[in-house]
């Protein structure tokens, strides 16, 4: 974008830089909080907390929608005092973002065993009554949250889960210590630093030019089909992982692939989903399903998929068991929608 290409464009550039500037200051602020424990502790004073219990976020329901309430530090301290807990537990909280006005947002789990305080996990029903909400399994609530809350809560849950599972150094066996923001853990005895991890997963929508290939695992809800997914093996490139996964799961060789988008996916652990379109030659479409990985796989026509997308409501479809697709928030849905709307041009060799 140029600053010298006429009035209309200059106006656009002005807004572009204003937006960029807000984003940059926010990013730099979060970076500072991750690096500086004192700054992070100070940010808690004016910050807000999302609460969890055993990795289930506190949600309040209004109609068919869920929303995630935030609590100030003062409210949180009062709550802990009411339940006979010390405020040391607040040190277990993790930084998950901030508002444009730099109100820092944290997440704290009241159900997991605390590494900062000797207090046991807090009783769920009593807390729910006090907080006028319910700790709801994230998978159940995710599709009824707005996109912003869904993204914040999945990040929060992933980070809380990682800390819960990485309390000891795998080299020394000593307890590790989290920094204030929760962006890392350090072993005090040998100074090894542990950072939160995500596993890269490729998700591929294979097409033969007119149809696309969808598959299901036996663990999927009844009737749901999705694109092929698989964890990357160590040492693999994205292209190699796509080629191997498609060969392993359905016995086909893809010849071209095109990157589409990526998404953080919290289930069952943190994955970075990397979504691609891929093609096979029209004459080489015979599927050999690997029954150790999949329950079924098949080619679906453009019409079949477009119809399923139009009436895609997991709640009713699941009940009647008809063919249906992953919900909107899943990157598989975006990939399938992209294919229905505009079959991608094949550009990159696999
Ligand atoms: N967001 C979406 O749209 C979407 C759609 C489909 C799948 N997914 C996710 O993709 C992930 C991978 O899909 P899959 O189950 O078909 O993978 P997969 O085909 O690689 O099969 C899973 C198996 O891979 C092995 N494995 C290798 N590395 C692993 C690791 N780091 N963690 C766990 N298991 C590992 C295990 O034996 C496991 O049973 C799943 O966790 C699923 O939740 C997301
Ligand atoms: Mg798979």
Question: Would you kindly provide a written description of the structure presented here, covering whatever features stand out?
Answer:
34% of the residues lie in helices and 24% in strands. It has 350 residues and is an alpha+beta fold. Strands 1, 2, 3, 4, 5, 6 and 7 form a seven-stranded mixed beta sheet that branches. Strands 11, 12, 13, 14, 15, 16 and 17 form a seven-stranded mixed beta sheet that branches. β5 and β6 form a beta hairpin. The radius of gyration is 23 Å and the shape is globular. Nicotinamide-adenine-dinucleotide (NAD) is lined by residues 199, 201, 203, 226, 229-231, 263, 265, 267-268, 271, 273, 293, 326, 330-332. Its EC number is 3.6.1.22. GO terms for molecular function: metal ion binding; pyrophosphatase activity. InterPro entries: NADH_PPase-like_N (IPR015375), NudC-like_C (IPR049734), NUDIX_hydrolase-like_dom_sf (IPR015797), NUDIX_hydrolase_CS (IPR020084), NUDIX_hydrolase_dom (IPR000086), Znr_NADH_PPase (IPR015376). Residues 196-323 form the Nudix hydrolase domain.
Strand proportion: 15-25%
> What's the domain count?
2
CATH class of the largest domain: Alpha Beta
* Mean pLDDT over the residues: 89
Number of helices: 10
Q: Per the principal axes of the C-alpha atoms, what is the gross shape?
A: globular
CATH architectural name of the largest domain: Alpha-Beta Complex
CATH homologous superfamily title of the largest domain? Nucleoside Triphosphate Pyrophosphohydrolase
Q: Which small-molecule species are bound to the chains here?
A: nicotinamide-adenine-dinucleotide, magnesium ion
SS-based class: alpha+beta
Helicity, as a percent range: 25-40%
The N- to C-terminal Cα distance equals 33 Å
What is Rg?
23 Å
Q: SSE order in H/E notation?
A: HHEEEEHEEHEHHEEEEEEHEEEHHHE
Largest sheet: 7 strands, mixed
């Amino acid at each position: 974008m140029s600053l010298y290409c006429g009035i209309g464009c200059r106006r656009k550039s002005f807004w572009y830089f204003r937006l960029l500037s807000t984003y940059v200051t926010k990013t730099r602020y979060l970076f500072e909080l991750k690096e500086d424990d004192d700054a992070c502790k100070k940010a808690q004073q004016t910050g807000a907390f999302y609460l969890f219990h055993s990795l289930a976020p506190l949600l309040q329901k209004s109609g068919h929608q869920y929303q995630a309430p935030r609590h100030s530090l003062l409210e949180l301290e009062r709550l802990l005092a009411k339940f006979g807990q010390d405020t040391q537990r607040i040190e277990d909280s993790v930084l998950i973002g901030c508002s444009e006005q730099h109100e820092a947002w944290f997440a704290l789990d009241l159900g997991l065993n605390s590494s900062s305080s000797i207090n046991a996990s807090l009783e769920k029903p009593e807390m729910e009554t006090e907080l006028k909400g319910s700790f709801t399994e994230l998978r159940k609530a995710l599709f009824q949250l707005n996109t912003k809350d869904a993204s914040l809560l999945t990040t929060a849950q992933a980070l809380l889960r990682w800390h819960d599972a990485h309390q000891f150094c795998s080299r020394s066996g000593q307890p590790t210590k989290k920094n204030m923001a929760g962006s890392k853990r350090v072993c005090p005895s040998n100074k090894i630093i542990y950072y939160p991890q995500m596993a890269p997963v490729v998700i591929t929508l294979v097409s033969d030019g007119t149809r696309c290939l969808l598959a299901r695992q036996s663990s999927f809800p009844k009737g749901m089909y999705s694109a092929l997914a698989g964890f990357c093996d160590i040492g693999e490139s994205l292209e190699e992982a796509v080629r191997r996964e498609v060969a392993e799961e359905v016995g086909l060789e893809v010849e071209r692939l095109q990157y589409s988008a990526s998404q953080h996916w919290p289930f069952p652990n943190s994955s970075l989903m990397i979504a691609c379109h891929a093609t096979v030659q029209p004459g080489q479409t015979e599927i050999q399903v690997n029954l150790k990985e999949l329950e079924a796989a098949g080619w679906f026509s453009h019409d079949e998929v477009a119809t399923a997308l139009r009436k895609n409501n997991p709640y009713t479809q699941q009940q009647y068991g008809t063919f249906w697709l992953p919900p909107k928030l899943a990157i598989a849905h975006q990939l399938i929608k992209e294919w229905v709307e505009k079959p991608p041009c094949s550009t990159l060799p696999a």
